[in-house]
Amino acid sequence: MLYFNRLFTSSRLCATMKIKMLLLFTLALICGPVFAVEPLRIVGDEWPPYVDESLPGNGLSVEIVTEALKKSGYATHFALEDLSRAIAGARIGVYDVVSNIWYSEDAATDLDFTDPYLSNEMCFIKRKGVDIEYAFLSDLRGMVVGVVKDYPYPREFVMAGDIIKIPVPTMLPALNALAAGQINLVLGDRRDIDFLLAKFMPQEAKTLEYMPPCFPKNDLFAAVSKTNPNHAKITQDFNAALKRMKTDGSYQFILDKHSLEH
Q1: Are 95 and 45 in contact (CB under 8 A)?
Q2: Which domain holds residue 50?
Q3: Contact, 174 vs 168, CB < 8 A?
Q4: Residue 223 and residue 115 share a domain
Q5: pTM metric for this prediction
Q6: Are the beta carbons of 125 and 186 closer than 8 angstroms?
Q7: Which UniProt keywords apply (predicted)?
Q8: Does residue 177 sit within a domain?
């Protein structure tokens, strides 16, 4: 009798556990990413003020991307990596989301691009009082210009062989070289330059000025790895959340926090 009681009790427990597991599975299907086992792995390359672990939310780009995914119910984890490794890692599924990337057809074969969430404006900057003007890139023939690895430079500038381009790993050394009179110009993103001058070179900034015209603005995207089976839904959820953020004020709040204009 005792054996049958134990058997009956054990059967009831098994049935109860099965029901609970079925309920949890059903909830996971209904609620989607909220119940995801693993957080989305976001990666970005250090590029202040867009990506910088010392800034609020790991930088402007990372905070916008993270908040849009959070509003869609996704948990996230951020990792810092150089751009080429970040993109390569996303292509093979090491990372789920690249936080800051410019559109290219090559990358689009392996990555699902979101709607653009910011734009970059490329401008030349020079020393004040130096007589340099241009209307066409051909006017800058023979000029020595500081450039940064992996920067989204306009194709016409990259292809301009009569401009002497001096590569540096980051923007700050280029700006220091410019202020010291070692090069004629620096070409870079205006937010990036403004941030670095304000933080690291406030005195030297008074001796520098932008040289118009700037290049047309270039859209900045996030991109989801197509190795993630839910990449299309993640991208769709991000785009919807971004639109809501621009309506409810949370997008502007993040811009204001980083003291930047759209």
Answers
A1: no
A2: 36-119+219-257
A3: yes
A4: yes
A5: 0.82
A6: yes
A7: Signal
A8: yes
Are the C-beta atoms of residues 120 and 67 closer than 8 Å to each other?
A: no
pLDDT band for position 89 (cuts 50, 70, 90): very high
Question: Looking at residue 92, which CATH number applies to its domain?
Answer: 3.40.190.10
Instruction: Show the tokens assigned to 140.
Output: 């800058």
d(C-alpha 223, C-alpha 235), whole Å: 8
List Cβ neighbours of 142 (8 Å cut-off, separation of 6 or more): 162, 163, 164
Mean pLDDT of 208-212: 98
Instruction: Return the pLDDT at 3.
Output: 41
CB 123 within 8 A of CB 210: yes
Residues linked to residue 79 through DSSP beta bridges, in sequence order: 43
Taking the C-alpha atoms of residue 118 and residue 98, their distance in angstroms, rounded to an integer, is: 14
Can you give the three-state secondary structure of the chain, one letter per residue? CHHHHHHHHHHHHHHHHHHHHHHHHHHHHHHHHHHCCCCEEEEECCECCCECCCCHHHCHHHHHHHHHHHHCCCCEEEEECCHHHHHHHHHHCCCCEEEEECCCHHHHCCEEECCCCEEECEEEEEECCCCCCCCCHHHHCCCEEEEECCCCCCHHHHCCCCCEEEEECCHHHHHHHHHCCCCCEEEEEHHHHHHHHHHHCCCHHHHEEEECCCCCCEEEEEEEECCCCCHHHHHHHHHHHHHHHHHHCHHHHHHHHCCCCC
In a domain, 167, yes or no: yes
Strand pairing of 76-80 and 185-189? unpaired
Residue 22 lies in a domain: no
